């Protein structure tokens, strides 16, 4: 099968790109994967209960419901959605080749352009009680979840010692009664200015040489306490905590393109600033797979739009080249009836 554009991913970036490309009548094919990277189609939002910071939903919306709506919108405009995982790609030349899982030894499918929107997964710690209380007190995104009612005026815990942990802890002081930061080592890895701000905040307590052991809950199924341990003495204690936020990093899903697309030292795809362009012409990246700073549904959707517009522009330019060649052979000149896409007049593109 050959396609003009293939999208690999199933989150907000992937579906936003699909909507734009389908409306441009480019017949995008979207591979949402079958438990790709251990996550159901729809990405990390499917593990989120309430999304309250996505525009257009004044009463909030469930993460899974939001992704179901995006999927329906993609299909409505003609996106072909395939519930298979792309296992291998060859980006050495166009058309690009790709193989689905369990079909690596068969003839490849091909595409003129590919948008990589495979996302990133928050690292978990595997604490006892983690699965039970995930999204019932445990989160990996303070900005996403910190303002929900179960955390307001409650004691909260952040695990991590870097800049992200410091930023999330200070953000949570707006909502929680007090924030405890657990740092495994004797010092913070955060920059000196961030560390000073954190230590100076009266609503924050930093516990060094301390790790989480177990999460406990109440009869409502919500987190209520946490068992922590001093790694030097081995002493354990149980503290009241209604929220636990992991700030121990994310793992971008870039194994598929490793060695072909340029990535940074953390594995995120490197794109030209302000664009979705990768180091290979015709391959674009959108969403959390190339964004280690914001990691929000709305920013992912925005980057999906950018990738779609840039893929459309790329395809149009190369189709023009082919058309010019054909018309040159016929000795014909282009008429004035050619429809120029709207983006062509946009100086940003």
TrEMBL record:
Cofactors, names only: FAD
Superkingdom assignment: Eukaryota
Annotated cofactor note: Binds 1 FAD per subunit.
Domain FAD/NAD(P)-binding: 4-304
Region annotation Disordered: where it falls in the sequence: 320-349
InterPro entries xref list: FAD/NAD-bd_sf, FAD/NAD-binding_dom, Ferredoxin-NADP_redctase_2, Pyr_nucl-diS_OxRdtase_2_AS, Thioredox_Rdtase
Cellular compartments per GO CC: cytoplasm
Reaction it catalyzes: [thioredoxin]-dithiol + NADP(+) = [thioredoxin]-disulfide + NADPH + H(+)
Enzyme Commission number(s): 1.8.1.9
Keywords: Disulfide bond, FAD, Flavoprotein, NADP, Oxidoreductase, Redox-active center
GO molecular function, one term: thioredoxin-disulfide reductase (NADPH) activity
Biological process, per Gene Ontology: removal of superoxide radicals
NCBIfam families: TRX_reduct (TIGR01292)
Subunit composition and interactions: Homodimer.
Family membership noted in the UniProt record: Belongs to the class-II pyridine nucleotide-disulfide oxidoreductase family.
Name recorded for this polypeptide: Thioredoxin reductase
UniProt source species: Glarea lozoyensis (strain ATCC 74030 / MF5533)
